[in-house]
Every structure is written in structure tokens, then in C-alpha cells.
């Protein structure tokens, strides 16, 4: 139970109290924070007593549909093991969890661990006094609530806060959020896939451009590597394959798929060029699987009917304008991501997550 000596909850709560006491901050925070922590500890002890005292020492349940009985021994073993762990950690914390704590905290701090002590007794200090006050205050609070319940002050007809049903409030909130999401989807969605993709790309582009427009993004001072003609040729081929795939995707699906595979192959070679064989293998597997799936899907698509009437000039001009719009949006999105990647790679990285290993 929380706050009971010789249990792991007492050790963790005392460490929490110590952090609120020895923190270096303003004077009023150094007073309010330990006081709030002590009051929270009192409530923690009170509701823990409600779980234990009322369940194990309260009145026996009557009018049950079935007669309760003790569970089998092996069903109690997991609970007994947890109780044993709570006792071992609470009595011998340094021996039980000291090495595990060092192994978990060392990669987080990235260096030497700060001084800390895992012990049951640290002498009479402020965190111990806070723990004792929280324990005694929680017992008094539980006894007062128990007495008020016996006196009938806290009955089923009590108003205001005690009549609130948390489950009903939660379910009502979830239902309203679901209804709001459904209405919003009906308002903003469309049956046309092209419009859905258009708005998705525009929203993603706006979300990425807005913070850069406000804060700005300039190139770093990291020295550039010499440009390789082979790498330029590789990306030129990949770019032409991507443009060809987009240009031929409507009427020449097989040729578009072949050029799409060429762009993917250039991406794999690029990963290998920058010493990322794991990404190259992943990209290669994804390319093969995607190509096979698209080939399976192409056989079910209707073939091109050359006997269809030639569209009117206005319809053809509208289609060309739409394709030009999509081309400009694609260039803006690709150019923005490329600029962002180049701006990040032009900066030095003195601190990286790779050092925490």
C-alpha cells in the first residue's frame, strides 16, 4: 500500500517527496510544492485504505448469485510473487533494483549518474516527516469519511460532486467526440480520390511551410562534399523515371510501372551511396512487393477503349490545367522536403542520439 514502510511504495513516495523538497526554485514554490505533495499523499493513503480495509475487513456481501470460494493455489502464485517483490524492494532496495536502475538510467543521462541513495533509512529528515504526515493524515481522512458515512452525512441522496458518475461522463464525452468527428468528415470529405489526395498534400505542405515561414530556415556552415558526376547522373535518371511514370500513368500503365521501378532502384542505390545498406534492402523489398501487387491489380483494370469520343476542347484544356496544377504542387512539395533535408544536413550535429548506446 502507498506510504507503508518496508514496501516499495514507501520508498518511491519518499523519493518523490525528496524531489519536491530539495528542488532549487522560487521561495513560494519551495513551500507550496511539498505541501501539495503531502496532501496528495494523504489522499493516496485514504483511497488505498478504501481498497484494502473496506474489501478485506468490511461487511460481508450478501444476496450474491454464486457463493464465493478461495481460488486455486496456482491462481494466487502471481499475486504472491508481486507481494514478495514489493517486500524485497522495500526492505533491500539497493540489492534488489540498484543494478537495474543504473543500467536503465545511464543511457538516459549520457554520462555519470548523479548521486542517489537507495536505502530504507536516511535518518530523520523532511521527506520522512512528510511521509509520516501523509500516512497519519490519510488514516485520519479515511476514518473521518467512514464516520460520516455511518452518521448518514454521506448518503445516496448527497448532491453536487458526489452525484457525478465518471463512467457516464466518459462515455458521453467519447460519444460526442465520435459524433463531431463523423459530422466533420461528412462536411470535409468527398467521394473523389483525387480531391482527397490534393487536400492531404496541401495541408501537409502548409503545416510544414508555416513554421519555416515564421521562424525561417537558412543553410548551415557545414562544408559541402565534392559533387560526384556519377551521383548527378544517377539522380537525373531517377528524376526522369519519376516524371515519365507520372506522365504515362493514365494510358500506358506497364511503361509507367517500369519507370516507377527505375526510380525506386535509383533510391536503393542512393541509400547504398550514403552507407545505409539496411534502408537499401528495405527499399528493395518494398519495391519488389509493390511492383508485384500493382501488376496483380493491373489485370483487373479495364483496358483502354480507343473508340471513345474525343473530349471537347474545353474539357481538354481543363484536364491540362489540372495536370499543370498537380505538377506545380508536386514540385513545391518535393522541393520543400529537399530544401529541408539539405538545410538540416548542412548543419553540424555535435549531439546525437547515436551517442546514447
What's the quick description here?
The chain has 357 residues and is mostly helical.
Q: Keyphrases for this structure?
A:
357 residues, mainly alpha, 69% helix, elongated
How does this model look, in words?
With 357 residues, the chain is mainly α. Among the domains are: 8-158, no CATH class; 226-306. It has helices at 8-21, 27-56, 73-91, 93-109, 126-151, 166-188, 193-215, 229-248, 253-273, 277-298, 313-345. It is elongated. The model has no long low-confidence stretch (mean pLDDT 80).
Secondary-structure element string: HHHHHHHHHHH
Radius of gyration based on Cα positions: 33 Å
The average pLDDT is: 80
This entry's quaternary arrangement is: single chain
Contiguous helical run count: 11
Number of strands: 0
Shape: elongated
Which percent range describes the beta-strand content? under 5%
- Sheet with most strands: none
Low-confidence stretches: none
Structural class: mainly alpha
- Terminal residue distance: 36 Å
Helical coverage, percent range? 55-70%
SSE topology sketch:
Blueprint: H1 8-21, H2 27-56, H3 73-91, H4 93-109, H5 126-151, H6 166-188, H7 193-215, H8 229-248, H9 253-273, H10 277-298, H11 313-345
Amino acid at each position: 500500500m502507498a506510504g507503508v514502510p518496508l514496501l516499495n511504495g514507501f520508498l518511491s513516495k519518499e523519493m518523490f517527496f525528496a524531489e519536491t523538497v530539495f528542488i532549487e526554485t522560487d521561495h513560494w514554490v519551495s513551500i507550496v510544492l511539498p505541501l501539495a505533495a503531502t496532501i496528495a499523499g494523504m489522499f493516496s493513503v485514504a483511497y488505498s485504505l478504501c481498497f484494502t480495509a473496506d474489501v478485506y475487513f468490511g461487511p460481508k456481501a450478501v444476496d450474491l448469485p454464486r457463493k464465493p470460494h478461495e481460488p486455486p493455489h496456482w491462481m494466487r502464485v502471481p499475486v504472491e510473487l508481486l507481494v514478495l517483490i514489493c517486500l524485497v524492494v522495500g526492505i533491500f532496495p539497493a540489492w534488489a533494483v540498484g543494478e537495474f536502475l543504473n543500467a536503465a538510467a545511464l543511457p538516459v543521462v549520457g554520462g555519470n549518474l548523479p548521486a542517489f541513495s537507495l536505502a530504507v533509512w536516511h535518518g530523520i529528515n523532511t521527506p520522512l516527516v512528510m511521509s509520516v504526515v501523509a500516512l497519519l493524515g490519510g488514516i485520519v481522512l479515511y476514518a473521518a469519511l467512514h464516520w460520516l458515512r455511518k452518521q448518514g452525512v454521506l448518503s445516496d441522496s448527497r448532491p453536487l460532486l458526489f452525484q457525478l458518475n465518471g463512467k457516464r461522463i466518459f462515455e458521453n464525452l467519447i460519444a460526442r467526440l465520435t459524433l463531431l468527428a463523423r459530422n466533420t468528415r461528412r462536411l470535409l470529405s468527398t467521394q473523389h480520390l483525387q480531391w482527397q489526395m490534393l487536400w492531404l498534400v496541401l495541408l501537409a505542405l502548409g503545416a510544414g511551410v508555416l513554421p519555416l515561414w515564421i521562424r525561417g530556415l537558412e543553410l548551415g556552415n557545414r562544408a559541402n562534399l565534392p559533387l560526384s558526376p556519377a551521383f548527378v547522373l544517377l539522380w537525373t535518371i531517377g528524376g526522369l523515371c519519376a516524371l515519365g511514370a507520372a506522365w504515362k500513368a493514365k494510358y500506358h500503365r506497364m511503361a509507367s510501372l517500369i519507370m516507377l521501378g527505375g526510380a525506386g532502384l535509383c533510391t536503393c542505390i542512393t541509400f547504398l551511396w550514403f552507407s545505409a545498406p539496411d534502408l537499401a534492402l528495405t527499399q528493395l523489398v518494398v519495391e519488389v512487393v509493390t511492383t508485384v501487387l500493382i501488376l496483380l491489380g493491373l489485370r483487373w483494370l479495364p483496358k483502354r477503349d480507343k473508340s471513345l469520343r474525343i473530349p471537347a476542347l474545353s474539357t481538354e484544356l481543363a484536364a491540362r490545367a489540372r495536370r499543370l496544377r498537380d505538377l506545380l504542387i508536386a514540385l513545391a512539395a518535393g522541393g520543400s522536403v529537399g530544401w529541408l533535408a539539405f538545410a538540416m544536413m548542412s548543419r553540424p550535429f555535435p549531439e546525437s542520439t547515436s551517442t546514447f548506446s
